[in-house]
User: Fold this.
Amino acid sequence: MTTPSSDTSNGTIAGFDYRRVPVAEGVSLNVAVAGKGSPLVLLHGFPQTHLMWRHVAADLAADHTVICPDLRGYGASDKPAENGASTYAKRTMAADVVALARALGHERFALAGHDRGALVAFRAGLDHPAAITHLACLDVLPTLDMWQVMRGAGAAVGFHLYLMAQPPGLPEEMIAASADTFFGHFLDLWAGDPRAIPDGVRAAYLRACRQAIPSIVADYRASAGIDAEHDRADREVGHRLRMPVTVLQQDWGAALGYDAAALWRAWAPDLRHETVTCGHFMAEEAPADVVKALRALLTR
Assistant:
């Protein structure tokens, strides 16, 4: 597969065009676009930017229009101050993505997300089923399910979820006091192959995170409140994902005692669930496998 160079001095993907696209009042997203063909939007995770898709995006751009934004609050996208729970609700961030695609001329598009981006993608699939043709979620559980399985000593692995769930003030101050150590911890701990995130890319991620602490915390804080409420409301009325869905996931279920495929199947009747052997950063550690899974999804 194609392995592009990246300009790690400014965190861009070689060969992609960059623009800023207004998606909501006072909010524009930084977005990289390349290729021709059916549109595919790729959403990054934590603690990263759209740069995490550099290998996958370059390969898929051979026959798709590939759209890689920085999420609201991340990277070079706008970072509105948290003004109530809805500012960084996944419902709001999903609406950003739909507005972005529409501004680029796409009323319907395929959507793939990793980590935080997968939660935004999941919400987009529930809220905007007419817009999302295919959906891929990499290495997450839906928010409501995630909180239900994080119990006992095993929940220590998700300490950051609880830290950033706290009211504004304390978590932001604690993280800012040692930002590179905090964000670098996850890049080190979650990578099955540290070589997949070279020094220049790592530096770009850390720089972006240092500049986005309040909005990153607000994104996580929303998942401890309004995001779970939205999931619960959908579950109660039986809302499900209508489009073909692919989930790629590490085997956290074996470690924490849950059946990940069963949890996902409750939301996604047309599901293909695959357990991967690489680390969390699969688009960087095993890009060929991710491309293969996405191409298979787009044929369904």
Summary: The chain has a mean pLDDT of 95. The beta strands are 6-7, 12-13, 17-24, 27-34, 38-43, 64-69, 109-114, 132-138, 245-249, 271-275. Residues 136 and 294 are 7 Å apart (CA to CA). The longest helix spans residues 90-103.
